[in-house]
Design a protein that fits this description.
heterodimer; A: alpha+beta; Alpha-Beta Plaits; 2 domains; two-stranded antiparallel ribbon; 9 helices; about 30% helix; B: mainly alpha; Formate dehydrogenase/DMSO reductase fold; 18 helices; about 75% helix; disordered C terminus; binds iron/sulfur cluster
């Protein structure tokens, strides 16, 4: 029952209405940026720009492609940010959104380092900073609305629906026009699946999307953390055992007599 | 390192200056926030403070649990003389780690929140809980030295208190304390490695391995004795109480064995993952790998196995220094240099980050200096609760 968005780069016209809608809904201030010679602006997502459209120029299959992809939190099925956070400030909700709670965060920024997509951003300019990232408009979703960006999108590049249905639709779109798409739904398998799904005319690494495996990044951590209780008991038992054994062996020869020669310091 | 007795005032003067600069920088950090005092960014959210103060700091303080284990569990009496300084260094090391975290956290005044919001699946949570508990354990392990000094004090009120009572209590629970220390250390030294397991996509393949926690624990155990050698050589030059060469060569030999296991694990792990060729091909990261391995493992193993090295204080000292430098190299590699940065970001620590880290180290050195002045730190203290309790 989890929601997702399918982002079809073939339909995106790069108007950035989603970007503006996000700023409006979340009441985020504008940022001062410099002209980089591209329509892409601002250059990066930040704590005040939770989503942006990334412009890529790609040479693929003998053709030139100008591709626009909307960047934001992927709302992973097995989010690294949530597994990392020591206070559990991040939670994956059943409906899809991965949500962050100011009332728990202490600002260690492990979530920022852990996220495989490089998403959580920090309010570096603020002496009392919080982490910020896309909320998937969970507040709108609970009210029965679509995310603000999806509502604003004029070209149908963003489609909001059930995740399973969208994956099926994505594959249908690829099958219907195989020459227009690479045969890859980004987010279906990536790091164990994400709630944001992408279709593209060129391979995703050409769009600057991280090339990640299909295993959830949290797997090895879970394994390691699972070993903690046995290690705790094991080491305690081992050390007590060694102590007892060594003591018994030394004890048979009477009390331990520290070698005084070793212990008396030789002054300079 | 030609520090002699007379130069101590100069040394403490420099230390005090560094401490003061660090303190002022810290105050600035609290007023102006992280962004104004560091070069950290969304791309590189962890910087010098995490790599040096947390990752290196915790590992370099491993002497506390390794030496406590050697002396009280394995009952190798020979090493009694270094147990006390090792435990003090460990205690200070952990205090520094906590202080550094209080600087590094975005909202340190909320640090208590982790006591009420547990994510027991987070390795960071485990590290926090263990570091906190272990610091208390270390304080208790060290407390008899303080009680001992107080019991000899002439000050009227202090004199009247029966310091023998708390001393006897600590002595009674000494072995459980040491075991708790070893368990807690095992857990958080390895969990610092588990923290990096979350980054299979960003940590370079040469370092990312499921056995990272084991490698972390192993290298911490190896650097423990080396750090004790490094530090007690330095303090013996300053304070004049020399330790017997036998202790040092014994620690050196031990370190060589532990490092051999480490080297073997590193190689076998790369071999098992089929990535061994990366150490030749993955330029430029392979240079970092060779750097840490040659300095921190290969050279020390060779040197420590040479009897001539084990007979020379100077050689032992420099070899121990190699182990320490190699460990620092390794921790910087895994937590900064070989850890991917987000595209279009760069990071080099701001001077204020250096100032805070240097200030904290100077803090510890000042306290060690004070302890050597005021507390019965030297070897051969017959009445020493910690050094005596192990021997019935
Ligand atoms: S993309 Fe990053 S921030 Fe978003 S849910 Fe996944 S791990 Fe968390
Ligand atoms: S910065 Fe906050 S949300 Fe992120 S891991 Fe740390 S405590 Fe959790």
């Amino acid at each position: 029952m989890s929601k997702a968005v399918l982002c079809d780069a073939n339909k995106c016209i790069g108007c950035r209405a989603c970007q503006v809608a996000c700023k409006q809904w979340n009441e985020m201030p504008g940022e001062t940026t410099t002209n980089t010679g591209s329509y892409e602006n601002p250059p990066k997502t930040t704590a005040y720009t939770l989503t942006k459209v990334h412009f890529s120029e790609a040479d693929y299959d003998g053709k030139f492609h100008w591709v626009f992809t909307k960047i934001q939190c992927m709302h992973c099925e097995h989010p690294a940010c949530a597994a990392a956070c020591l206070v559990g400030a991040f939670q994956k909700t059943e409906e899809g959104p991965v949500l962050y709670d100011d009332h728990k965060c202490i600002g260690c920024r492990y979530c920022m380092v852990a996220c495989p997509f490089g998403i959580p951003a920090y309010q570096w300019d603020d002496p009392t900073p919080w982490v910020r990232k896309c909320t998937f408009c969970a507040d709108r979703q609970t009210g029965g609305l679509k995310p603000a960006c999806v509502t604003a999108c004029p070209s149908g590049a963003l489609k909001f629906s059930e995740r399973d249905a969208l994956i099926a639709e994505a594959h249908q779109r690829i099958a219907a026009e195989p020459s227009k798409y690479v045969n890859h739904v980004y987010g279906e398998e990536e790091v164990g699946g994400t709630s944001w799904l992408y279709l593209s005319p060129v391979p995703f690494d050409m769009l600057g999307m991280p090339v990640v495996g299909s295993e959830a990044v949290t797997v090895n951590v879970e394994r390691a953390m699972g070993a903690v209780p046995p290690v705790l008991v094991g080491v305690a038992a081992l050390m007590s055992g060694i102590y007892w054994l060594v003591k018994r062996r030394q004890g048979s020869g009477g009390a331990v007599t520290p070698d005084d020669k070793e212990r008396v310091g030789v002054p300079k | 390192m030609k520090i002699n007795k007379r130069s101590i005032p100069v040394g403490t003067l420099i230390l005090t200056t560094v401490v003061l600069i660090g303190l002022i920088t810290m105050i600035l950090r609290y007023i102006n926030g992280l962004g104004a005092t560091t070069n950290l960014s969304d791309g590189r959210a962890w910087g010098l403070w995490i790599s040096f103060d947390l990752y290196c700091g915790v590992a370099l303080a491993a002497g506390g649990f390794t030496l406590a284990g050697i002396v009280y569990i394995f009952r190798r009496e020979k090493y009694h003389a270094v147990a006390r300084p090792a435990i003090l260094t460990a205690f200070l090391g952990y205090t520094l780690v906590i202080l550094a975290l209080l600087v590094d956290l975005g909202q340190p005044w909320y640090i208590w929140r982790f006591l009420f919001n547990w994510n027991i699946h987070s390795p960071m949570f485990e590290v926090s809980l263990c570091v906190m508990t272990y610091t208390i354990v270390l304080a208790l392990e060290f407390s008899p030295v303080v009680f001992e000094a107080l019991s000899k004090s002439d000050l009227p009120i202090i004199k009247r208190f029966k310091w023998q009572i708390p001393m006897r209590i600590i002595r009674a629970i000494q072995i459980p304390l040491v075991i708790a220390g070893i368990v807690l250390s095992t857990l958080h030294q390895s969990s610092l490695g588990s923290m990096l397991l979350m980054m299979p996509e960003t940590l370079h393949t040469l370092w990312y391995t499921p056995i990272l926690p084991i490698l972390f624990l192993n290298s911490a155990i190896a650097v423990g004795p080396a750090m004790v050698m490094f530090e007690s050589t330095l303090s013996s030059r300053v304070f004049g109480h020399r330790l017997s060469l036998d202790i040092f060569s014994g620690l050196g030999k031990m370190t060589a064995y532990i490092l051999s296991v480490y080297l073997l694990l590193k190689i076998v792990d790369l071999l098992a993952r089929g990535d061994l060729t990366l150490i030749f091909t993955a330029y430029p990261e392979n240079l970092l790998w060779w750097g840490e391995m040659v300095i921190g493992a290969i050279l020390p193993i060779v040197l420590f196995s040479m009897p001539s090295v084990r007979q020379s204080r100077t050689w032992l000292f420099w070899t121990a220094t190699l182990v320490v430098v190699g460990l620092i190299f390794n921790r910087f590699n895994v937590s900064m240099l070989a850890l991917g940065i987000r595209p279009d970001f760069t990071y080099f620590p701001y001077w204020m980050e250096f100032a805070v880290s240097a200030g904290l180290v100077a803090d510890a050195m000042l306290v060690i200096w004070l302890a050597n002045r005021l507390l019965p730190m030297g070897p051969g203290n017959k009445e020493g609760a910690i050094t005596e309790a192990g021997s019935n």
